[in-house]
Structure formats: structure tokens, C-alpha cells
Amino acid sequence: MRGCPEVAAPEPVFAEPWHAQVFALTVHLNEAGRFSWGEWVERFSATLKRHGLSRELDGGEDYFRAWLETLEVFLAEDGAASPAEAEVMRSRWEEAYLSTPHGAPVRLEG
Fold first, then answer.
1. Which of 2, 14, 58, 105 makes an SS bond possible with 20, Cβ 3.0 to 4.6 Å?
2. 107 Cβ contact list (under 8 Å, min separation 6)
3. How far apart are CA 31 and CA 12, in angstroms?
4. Inter-axis angle of helices 61-78 and 17-31, to 10 degrees?
């Protein structure tokens, strides 16, 4: 349109789709009453500290790996998913990701 300044597209909030998915799952579990935000912050901070990371990370891979690790601990303690079950699922996703052609959606079989 003439006379309108160009507006740059916003930067993506999440670097990878799985970052957004694990964030959304965490929000959902919090809203379902599985844990409070206070509990989450305490545990997530401890995970970051254990890995020598800080809260000021920019939301990259290290940050979301720590996020996922924290979520897996909550799920294991709740009895929703044992560490062994989480590892099996992680392996299945990795296999699916590595065998999916570039640009195609990653899907789990069966």
C-alpha cells in the first residue's frame, strides 16, 4: 500500500517447533493442576543451575533441553511417564526425525 511504512515480520518466538510444543504442554499441565508455577520455577531453576546455565538464556537448545528435562521429572514423579518411557519416546522421535525427508512433517508410526 502506498504511504504505509513497511512492517517487518516478527521474529519467531521459538527456534524449533518442539520448543513451542514442550512449552504448550507445560502450560497445559499447569492449568490442569499438575503443578504450580512456583513449583515449576523452582525445579526449572535447579535444572538450569545443575547444568551451569542461567535464566537469561535466549530460549535456545540448551534452555529447552533443560525445560524438557524438568518436565520429564514432574511426569515421572506424578506417575504419568517413567524415565524409561520418556527415553523410548525420545528414541522413537529421533528415529522418525532422522528418517523423514527434509521439509516433510515428522510423524511417529504406530
1. 14
2. 96, 100
3. 24
4. 40
Nearest to 69 by CA among 81, 32, 57, 97: 81
**Under a CB-based contact definition with an 8 Å cutoff, are residues 78 and 34 in contact?**
yes
What nine digits make up the cell of 39?
A: 513449583
Specify which of 24-38, 47-61, 84-98 reaches the highest per-range mean pLDDT: 24-38
pTM of this structure: 0.72
Residue type present at position 29: L
**Residue recorded with cell 520418556:** 86
96: pLDDT confidence band, cut at 50, 70 and 90? confident
